[in-house]
């Protein structure tokens, strides 16, 4: 086993543990925990047995397993970034509406002039 | 009473030292003053209230655009027919309010913009930045304004749905003007003297560059 594989395993184990901690703190649901856990365990399997991705390499016309890994990782990152952007934007709108409605409660209607 | 009600809306953030004087000066020219306190950590709300303003206070700082939105909605709720927007730091001369309002009341214009004369009171880099912004607005939207970033303006309350802005930050002044152009609202300008109290406050060069980019995006999205 080469050094990069050992680093990869420890990295995936750390992320698995971190995901578990967030599940214990109820930051994420059980379903989210399993979804992330599948991803980290998959990462470990690919790190230990890189040959299991060979079946995909030919199909996608990619020469090296590392190239496939980088491409998939970039796709996942793009999805996560977009999801975060949407989530933050939605939160901004909700906060703005809440703060405004609270502020406008301080205004009394005009008395008869 | 002629059925008209002029309300000034002042978005304010940490303007505790100046706000009372500004409110007192503005009150002489309008029926009501609404200060939209954007989560100030000083005595902005208290001082403005003591000076006779109506206060709408954000629990947290959201930005000038959000504060203006809250202030204008409060003004409409209070029965405003004409709304004057101006900064809370005393950079806009209140004695110019009657001139702005008169143009709106004449029926010839829907919205009236003030513009700062590009004299040497304005720092050089701001003069340069403003000219670039004005050029971009002219080139991309065909709108002939001399100071699109000046927040001192008056408009009829019933056009608010047409110019209602989305931006929460300082680009609100530009967005509002561009929405007025988009809906072909009738506008004119009046000159005001340039007054600068705090060069550090307000917008930076980075904000200006970001705004230029936004103008380009608005060209295709508004």
What does this structure look like?
- The complex is a heterodimer of chains A (113) and B (222).
- By secondary structure, chain A is mainly alpha-helical.
- Chain A folds into two domains: 1-48; 63-106.
- Helix content of chain A is 78%, strand content 0%.
- Chain A has four helices and no strands.
- Chain A has helices at 3-24, 30-48, 54-60, 65-104.
- Chain A starts with a helix and ends in a 9-residue tail after the last helix.
- Chain B is of the alpha/beta class and 222 residues long.
- Chain B has a single domain (6-221), classed as Spore Coat Polysaccharide Biosynthesis Protein SpsA, Chain A, CATH 3.90.550.
- Chain B has a seven-stranded mixed sheet, sandwiched between helices.
- In chain B, helix 5 packs parallel to helix 8.
- The longest helix of chain B has 18 residues, at 124-141.
- The radius of gyration of chain B is 16 Å and the shape is globular.
- The termini of chain B are far apart.
- The interface between A and B is medium-sized, with 13 and 21 residues.
